[in-house]
Amino acid sequence: MCAQTIPSIGNHFPNLNDNGSKVGFSHFSHDHKLRFAFIPKKLEVDCSACWLLISGPTYCCYTCYFFLHESCFDELKPQYIQHPFHIQHPLHFKARVGICNACTTFSDIGYECAEGDFKLDIKCAKYLTSGLQHKCHEHKLFCFVVEDINGHVECCKHCYQMCNASFYRCLECDLNIHIECIPIPKNVKSVCHVHPLTLILDSITKKGQDEYYCHACENLRNPKHAAYYCKKCYYTAHIGCVLGEVRFVLQSFLDFALSIDH
C-alpha cells in the first residue's frame, strides 16, 4: 500500500506517513490503540519510553502524541525486572510511574518497586545498566550527563564545582562526582579487545546509527555518556564493564599466585 498523509495528526506533524499494513496495535503501555507510521528525520519527536529522538518506523497514538520506537514497542514487557539501581526488590512495569528516582524526571511509563518506594523510568532502566564499583565510594556509581537530570544538578562532592558534562551519581547518597575526580585510567587494555581503549568523555556516535550498544556487556548504552573507546575499530564499552573486567583478571591472577605459594 502506498504511503499517505494522515490528516488526524493535524498541523503538528503534517509529514507523518502511515504504513497501512499495521494499524490498530494494542500495547500495555498505553490506553489507546497505536498505529504504525514512518517519521522523517526532520521532525523532532521523542520516544515516550526512552526519550530519545525517533525517526523511521514508529508506533503512535495521534490523540495523545504518544510515540514509541519500533524497538521499544517490541522490548517493553509487562513484567518484573531486576535492576542494579534497586537490588533490594524487583521492579514491575507501571503505566503511570511518576517521578523517576534516578533522573527526577516525570514519566508516563516505567517501573516501580512493589514496596512503592522506588521508581525508574524506561530511559534509565534501559541505559543505566552498568555501574562503577570504585574504592572512592562505598556504593555503586552510575553515569549521567546533565540533560539526563530534571531540574538542578548538585555540585561534585569532591571538588565542589558544577557538574556540566558526564558525571557519576550515587542514588543511595544523592551525590554526584565528576568522572575526572575519580582516579580511573585514561587508557586501558581490556581482556575482551585486542586494541587499547581510551576514555572518552564526550558523546560517541556513528553516522546513520540510532541505537548504541556496549560491546562488553551487549546492553544498550547512551551515546552521550562517557565510555571507553577504540579509535581503530569503534569498539565501545561502559566504563564499569571495562574496569570490572580488569579487576576480575587481576583478582584471578592474584588468587592463582596465592594458590601456588600455598
Which descriptors apply to this entry?
5-stranded antiparallel sheet, alpha+beta, 27% strand, 4-stranded antiparallel sheet, disordered C terminus, globular, 262 residues
In short:
The chain has 262 residues and is of the alpha+beta class. It has three helices and 20 strands. Residues 28-72, 192-242 form the DC1 domain.
Shape: globular
Strand adjacency order, main sheet: 1-2-3-6-7
| Beta strand % | 25-35%
**Low-pLDDT regions:** 1-15, 247-262
Distance between the termini: 74 Å
In DSSP terms, counting alpha (H) and pi (I) runs of 4 or more, how many helices?
3
Number of strands: 20
Radius of gyration: 21 Å
Rounded average pLDDT: 76
Describe the overall structure.
It comes from Erythroxylum novogranatense. This is DC1 domain-containing protein. Residues 28-72, 192-242 form the DC1 domain. The strands form six sheets. Strands 1-2-3-6-7 form a five-stranded antiparallel beta sheet. A four-stranded antiparallel beta sheet has the order 8-9-12-13. It has a four-stranded antiparallel beta sheet with strand order 17-18-19-20. The protein is built from three helices and 20 strands. It has 262 residues and is α+β, with helices and mostly antiparallel strands.
